[in-house]
Amino acid sequence: MNRRNSKTTITLAAVAAALLGAALGSGCGDGGSGTVRITTYGEDFIEQEIPAAGAGGEGFVDGNSVRFSRFLVAFSEISVADSSGARADEIAGPLVFDLKPPGPHLIGELTQIEARRWDRFAVAVQPAAAATAGNATAADVQLMNDNGYSVFVAGEATDGQRTVVFSWGFANTTRYSECHEKSHGEGVVVPSGGTAPVELTIHGDHLFYDDLQSSEPSLRFAAIADADADSDGEVTLEELASVDLTTLPVGQYGTGGLGTVVNLRQFITALTRTLVHFQGEGHCHSGS
User: Fold this and answer.
1) Contact, 46 vs 71, CB < 8 A?
2) Contacts with 234 (C-beta within 8 Å, 6 or more apart), sequence order
3) SS3 string of 84-111?
4) Is the pLDDT score of 14 beyond 90?
5) Residue 39 burial (CB < 10 Å; 0-12/13-18/19+)?
6) What is the pLDDT of residues 225-266, one digit of tens each?
7) How far apart are CA 69 and CA 140, in angstroms?
C-alpha cells in the first residue's frame, strides 16, 4: 500500500469513528442493549495508608501519616440518564460499603440498557435509613442506620512522636450529578451486547485538605491532632468543633469565603462533599 492509500484509509477510519461517536452522543443507538457495571474503590490511600510526603511526593506535608481501620459510605440513588430527562435505570439503595478491604467492590449491574451514550450519571451519599450491606458487616450497617450516617471513618494518625485515633460519623447529604471524566466524556457509553464499567472512586485523602477552594491544597493533620484537648489520644468531632479556624496558621484552612464554615469540624464536614470521584480522577457536580 502506498502512502496516499494509507492516508485515505486512516481518514476513512477517522470519519467512521466520528460518525459512531456522533450517533452515541446524540442518543441514536443501534437498537441493541448492554449492561452498566458499577463498582466502588478506595485506592491505596484508604486500603493501605496516606503517608508523610517524601521529596516531591504525595502525602502529609507536616510529617504525619494516616491508616484507616474503617471507611464506610452509604450510596443511594445511583442513576443512569440523559440530558433530555430520560432515565435508563437506577440502584435505589441505600447500600453501605467499607472501602478499607481491597477493592474494587461491586455495587450492582443495570441490565438491558439501551446501547448509546447516557450523559447523566448521578449518585447520592446521604444519611442511611434501612440501609443494607454492600460489603459492610452487619454491625457497620447497624451503626450507619442507628445514627443516620452518610459517611463514617475511623483510624489513627502518627507523626512518629505522637499517635492519635479518630472515629467520626457524618450525617450530611451530598448529591453528585453530571459525572464526567476526560477520557470517558460525559456519563457512560453502553455498548450493544457488552458491559460499560463505572467506578465510583473514593478519595480518602480529601478529608485532610487544608483548603476548601484551592486547586492544589496540602494534606495536614497537625492541627487535628492538636485538637485533642483532654490529651486522651483520641480526637473527637466535639473537640474539632472547638477549634476556631482563625486561630490556625495563616495560609492554612482557607474556606474560600464560605462564611458558614468557622471551625475545624465544619471544615472537615465540608470536605466530605468531595470524596466521590468518577472513573478514577473524574468529577461530578455536588450539592445538598
Assistant:
1) yes
2) 164, 165, 166, 167, 228
3) CCCEEEEECCCEEEECCCCCCEEEEEEE
4) no
5) middle
6) 999 999 999 999 999 999 999 999 999 999 987 889 999 999
7) 12
Calculate the dihedral angle through the C-alpha atoms of 20, 111, 278, 199, rounding to the nearest 10 degrees.
-120
> In which band, very low, low, confident or very high, does the pLDDT at 57 lie, cut at 50, 70 and 90?
confident
| Cα–Cα–Cα angle for 126, 130, 133, rounded to 5 degrees | 85
* Residue in this structure with the C-alpha cell 447497624, named with its chain if needed: 142
**Cα–Cα distance between 150 and 21 in angstroms, integer?**
37
The pLDDT assigned to 10 comes to 29
Cell of 138: 452487619
Report domain extents, the chain. Answer: 1-30, 32-287
| Residues 53-80: b if buried by 16+ CB within 10 A, e if exposed | beeeeebbebebbbbbebbbbbbbbbbb
The closest alpha carbon to 72, from 278, 275, 277, 287, belongs to 275
Helix (H) or strand (E) holding 11: helix 3-26
The DSSP symbol for 79 reads: E
Place of cell 471544615: 267
**Tell me, what's the pLDDT at 30?**
53
Q: Please give the pLDDT value at position 184.
A: 87
Give, for 124, the enclosing helix (H) or strand (E). Answer: strand 120-125
Give the tens place of pLDDT for each residue, 187-235: 999 999 999 999 999 999 999 999 999 989 999 999 999 999 999 999 9
Distance CA 256, CA 108 (A): 37
Q: For residue 18, how many C-alpha atoms fall within 13 Å in the half-sphere facing its CB?
A: 6
